[in-house]
Amino acid sequence: MNRPVLGAVSLSVLCMLVGCAASTPTVRRTPEVDALFADYDSPERPGASVVVIHQGQVVLSRAYGLADVEHRTKATPESHFRLASLSKQFTAMAVQVLVKDGKLRLEDRVVEVLPGFPSYLGEVRVLQLLQHTSGIWDYEAFVPATQTEQVKDRDVLRLLARADRTYFPPGSAVRYSNSGYAVLALIVEQVSGKSYAAFLRERVFSPGGMASAVAHEEGVSTVPHRAFGYASGEGGFVPRDQSNTSAVLGDGGIYASVLDLAAWDRGLDAHVLVDATAGARAWAPVTLPDGSSGRYGFGWFVDEDQGRRRLSHHGETCGFTNAIVKYPEQRLTVIVLTNRAGGTPWSLAQQVADLWLGVPGTGHPWPFEGMPNAR
Q1: Which Pfam families has this protein been placed in (predicted)?
Q2: Contact partners, residue 196, CB within 8 Å, separation at least 6
């Protein structure tokens, strides 16, 4: 087995960047974590990065396999993976920042904020887009598999105009929709007067400690230490880095490293961008009219695991599959990023979290049954 590498940054430099705590228990757990990621630890195949943040400090950071198979570039904690639907928490935060600025209200009707939003969606509110209770159709239903031109966030409005009704009355149920977060990105642009990518860079990434994260626009921005996506094919892994929806930013177009995400996690706990009240609302599941929980907050799934509040999200897109699990009260977060289609990084993230929790989780499995794949 090839040893995982830390690449251009040593663990000591990583500690200076995001804070580390050397501990004997962590040293003992490293072989256990390596064993869980054995399938990714190969000099021939696309790989993975994993980070564990406990009590505000990075206690483990590992990388396995290749970030770029063609050029034999090893994955490191600096490798930037496409986050897929892990991006949604950043879109949600951008909205919360605008709310904090007094430029937007969660209760605003989208049609009154965003020009071109279809009139049949007149009762849809910003809050409902965040919580997946808007009932709007997923734009991917209108994109033919044969289409080669990439869809952008602005195209989502045109695609939504092909429908004439919502799945259900807005606010009455939960249905995961990538359209909602693409529309939220457009709202960020409309209200801020900046591009979505620029607003994230200036108001979310930079103050959140994510110096190298990027909402990637081909031909406009560059992804540092970029990991490229792959899928299993006949005879091995084949490039599969882009699809016809990979250019939509609001629902899944952010690239970041586990170093970025470790800093981001610490910023969330320290309420760097919004205050504790706003943060708590983002981590509270929506309550539906019948009193049941919709199990989604603002860019996070929310449930309980053996009485512990658990936040999570998975992300699946062309050539990348990722997961994050966070226990706020235990101040424990595990993030797994992979540059291959398939696999179950959510299971790996949970198993790693269980090592630190000291007891196997027995709560609801995730991704939650009944929820479509999160891009």
Answers
A1: Beta-lactamase
A2: 94, 153, 185, 186, 188, 189, 215, 249, 250
Total number of domains constituting the chain: 1
Element (H, E) at 268: helix 258-269
Tokens of 42: 């190969």
Domain of 150, CATH number, reads 3.40.710.10
Within a domain: residue 70? yes
* C-alpha–C-alpha distance, residues 86 and 140, integer Å: 18
Question: Domain range spanning residue 129?
Answer: 29-357
| Angle subtended at Cα 154 by Cα 153 and Cα 157, rounded to the nearest 5 degrees | 105
Place of tokens 């980070």: 51
The span from the CA of 259 to the CA of 210, in Å, is 8
**CA atoms within 13 Å, Cβ hemisphere of 18:** 32
Task: Please check whether residue 224 lies inside any domain of the structure.
Answer: yes
> Cis ω on the peptide bond leading into residue 367 (within 30° of 0)?
yes
pLDDT digits (tens, 9 = 90+) for 176-229: 999 999 999 999 999 999 999 999 999 999 999 998 999 999 889 999 999 999
Q: Is residue 15 part of a domain?
A: no
Longest Cα separation, the chain: 60
Region for 21 from its dihedrals, namely left if φ exceeds 0, alpha if ψ lies in -120 to 50, beta otherwise: beta
Report whether 237 contacts 65 (CB < 8 A).
Answer: no
pTM: 0.91
Q: Does residue 45 lie within any of the structural domains?
A: yes
